Every structure is written in C-alpha cells, then in structure tokens.
UniProtKB/TrEMBL annotation:
Involved pathway(s): Amino-sugar metabolism; 1,6-anhydro-N-acetylmuramate degradation; Cell wall biogenesis; peptidoglycan recycling
Protein name: Anhydro-N-acetylmuramic acid kinase
GO terms (BP aspect): 1,6-anhydro-N-acetyl-beta-muramic acid catabolic process; amino sugar metabolic process; peptidoglycan turnover
Keywords tagged on the record: ATP-binding, Carbohydrate metabolism, Kinase, Nucleotide-binding, Transferase
Organism: Hymenobacter taeanensis
Group of enzyme by EC: transferase
InterPro entries per the UniProt record, alphabetical: Anhydro_N_Ac-Mur_kinase (IPR005338), ATPase_NBD (IPR043129)
Record Gene3D superfamilies: 3.30.420.40
Top-level taxon in the UniProt lineage: Bacteria
UniProt lineage: Bacteria, Pseudomonadati, Bacteroidota, Cytophagia, Cytophagales
Catalytic activity: 1,6-anhydro-N-acetyl-beta-muramate + ATP + H2O = N-acetyl-D-muramate 6-phosphate + ADP + H(+)
List of residues binding ATP: 25-32
C-alpha cells in the first residue's frame, strides 16, 4: 500500500487528529493558520484550538493577487504561475508557524487549505446561458503545500459542493452546525468578512434541514477598498474611526441598496466580483456623490453592510427578529459596524464567537480543519435546504507529500 495512503487510513481510525486549517479571505490581509486537535466526528466533534496566527501578507503578495482578483480578464500565464507560487508561499508560512510553536511537521496529521479565492461565479450572477452552471476558483495548489511541508493536504473544498448541486459558498453551515448548535437557543452565526454572511442554527436536536447559510452583501470589502484608495498608507478603517466621523448620505445609500441582489430570495451567494469599486462608482455617479468625502463615504458603506445583514434577517425571521447573534471576521472588531447592526436589529443580542469558545479571527480556518476531519473520519451529512444546502458529500481533494 502507498505509505501516505496507509498514514491517511491510520489517521481516520484515531480517536483524534491534529489538523492545520488555513484561510485567506477577500480582505487579503494574510493567511490564518489554526492548529486544531479534533476529537471524534459529526455531531460528537470536540475541537481544541492549540495555536492560531495570522501571517500578514506583504504588499507584494497583495499586489500579485489583485492582478487576478475578481477580474473578468487576466493573463492566463500569470494565473497559471500564481497558483503554485501561492501554494509554495502558504507552505512556507505554515512551516514558519510550526517553528515558532516548537512543533515538528511530522507531529501534524493533516493540512486543510482553503486557498485564495480569486473569482466566484454562481450562475445567478454570471447569467451566461452557454455555461449554465456554478463555478468558483481558489489558488494555492495543494500538491505544492503537501510536498513543501511533508504533510498530507486537503484542498479545493468548494468544488465538491458545486459538483453536488451547491453554489460553493458559503460553507459555514457545516462547521457551525456541528460545533456551535445549542439546545438552549436559536443562533445566528454572523461572519463579517469581505462579504458578510450568516448561518442560522435551530436549537440542537431539531431538523438539520432548517439550518442554512446565506451571503447578505458586502462586509468589509468596499470599506477596505475605499480606505486604500483615499489613504494608501492604511489597509482599513481601524476601529471604524473614519466612518464614525462621517455622516450617512441617504441618496448614495439608496442607490447602493437598489441593486437586485438585496431583493433576491434567500439563501444567496455573491462576492467582490459584484460588490467591487465599479459598483460603488456607478452608484456615486447616479447619486451625484463622486466628490463625497472619505468619512461620509465610509459611514454610508458601513450602513450598507449593516442593512444588508438586517434585511436578510428580517426577510427570514420577520420585522423584529430576536436571536442570539455571534459575530466573527474582521468586521467583528469594528465598533461602527457593530453599532449599526444593533440599531437595525434592536431585539437581537450581539456577542462574538469567543463567548462560544471560538476565536472570531480563527473561525474560518477552524471550519476547514473541521471539513478535512469529516472528509477523513466522518460520514457525509446534508445540512440546510434549497440552493445553499450543504450536500451530503465529503469535501476536499487529497494531496500526498510523496
């Protein structure tokens, strides 16, 4: 038997597995590296986060990714070269973390690599009749990660979701359901990343088909892009200070909210391909606000992100939903965004996932460690319903080091 295959077989039978989960989101701030110990599988899964770090991207890395990020036309040669280059980079970042944590690579069972999303194209968004299917593309080749680190690697998780009838995003429902369901309360797990999304969790023990995830619109992507455009020395609006100093422009907000995405039925998925600088520019032109100051623009975009979440929540749960909301992602650190959310959802109780034992910044990396654990040791479980259901499939392609 192939020795790597034998190792994988042994890992699957162990009572626990040590898995590194990786996540690089649309904010392009860096690579999240979460070393997890996962006991069991399925609804009995117990997770320990042993170490976590975000390894920041240098500006050169962000520049390279932006050459292909959410662009309809790119150099095919450049895209081809970037895929292994990112895999090599992520492998070196993993090895750097392991050295800092005094852990040898052979002490890790698996790597679960999400990769870097560069284009997300659900059919309802691209509307191409010659390609009547959903698609998504993540770079950072898993074989390069496996060979460079010497650790069996699972990658390309979203493709199986699409192949089985899903849209490839968001996948949070799976990990949220297995790790964070509660018999005491209904929960909304709100991820405020580049794109905002939430998972609704019924009380534990109820029908899993009632759980679902949906994107709600822009989270931080427009905020960060606007800050970088006007203040190149800043990566984002720290603590929402600039937005807090501005005033919401109702005309611009109305144009932004006029996009058909906000009225579309749930669940739905989107990306920066839709909510990018062109979307903002066009709304500013229609509302005669191209000269609007940075602070007022950021205040308006913060309101847009909050209203996207609130509209989606009220669309499902009625005009005054009273749910326990647990936030994660970069936006969870933004007081201006949190205040806007509380204002629009006054009956909801807001906290972060840290209250539930999951570091907000580590949550997405943890999710992919959990998906790898299920692929190796679990049984496929279908969660949710409709277009965004998580099909009963194992996600992740296996790359052996040898």
């Amino acid at each position: 038997m192939n020795p790597d295959l034998r190792r994988l077989y042994q890992f699957a039978q162990q009572p626990s597995r040590r898995i590194i989960g990786l996540m690089s989101g649309t904010s392009l701030d860096g690579l999240d590296v979460a070393l997890c110990r996962l006991h069991g599988h399925g609804t009995t899964t117990r997770l320990e986060l042993e170490h976590f770090a975000t390894v920041p991207y240098h500006e050169d890395v962000r520049y390279r990714i932006r050459q292909v990020f959410a662009r309809e036309q790119v150099s095919l040669e450049y895209l081809t070269l970037l895929n292994p280059w990112l895999g090599h980079l992520h492998a070196d970042m993993i090895l750097q973390c392991l050295e800092q944590w005094n852990i040898a690579p052979p002490e890790v069972d698996l790597i679960a690599s999400h990769g870097q999303t560069v284009y997300h194209a659900p059919q309802h968004q691209h509307l191409r009749t010659d390609f009547n299917l959903n698609a998504t593309l993540q770079l950072g080749d898993g074989d390069h990660v496996a060979v460079r680190t010497g650790i069996i690697t699972l990658s390309d998780f979203r493709q199986k979701h699409i192949a089985a009838g899903g849209e490839g995003a968001p996948l949070a429902a799976y990990g949220d359901y297995l790790l964070l369901s509660s018999p005491k309360e209904e929960r909304l797990l709100l991820n405020l990343g580049g794109i905002a999304n939430f998972t609704y969790l019924p009380r534990a023990g109820q029908d899993a088909s009632t759980a679902f995830s949906t994107d709600t619109g822009p989270g931080n992507t427009l905020l960060d892009a606007t800050v970088r455009k006007h203040r190149p020395n800043l990566a984002y609006d720290e603590d929402g200070r600039l937005a807090s100093a501005g005033q919401i422009h109702e005309g611009l907000l109305a144009e932004l909210l006029g996009h058909p995405f906000f009225a579309a039925t749930l669940p739905k998925t989107t990306g920066p391909e839709l909510f990018g600088p062109a979307y903002l520019q066009q709304a500013q032109e229609r509302s005669n606000t191209t000269g609007l100051g940075l602070e007022d623009t950021l205040a308006t975009l913060t309101e847009l992100s909050a209203m996207g979440v609130a509209r989606a929540a009220t669309q499902v749960f009625g005009p005054k939903p009273a749910l326990s909301v647990y936030a994660s992602g970069g936006g969870a650190h933004n007081p201006a965004l949190r205040a806007a959310l509380q204002r629009h959802l006054p009956a909801c109780r807001f906290d972060t996932t840290e209250t539930l034992g999951i570091l907000p910044d580590a949550k997405e990396a943890i999710l992919f460690a959990l998906l790898a654990n299920e692929a190796v040791a679990g049984q496929p479980v279908s969660i949710g319903a409709g277009r965004q259901r998580v099909p009963a499939v194992s996600m992740g392609k296996v790359s052996f080091p040898r």
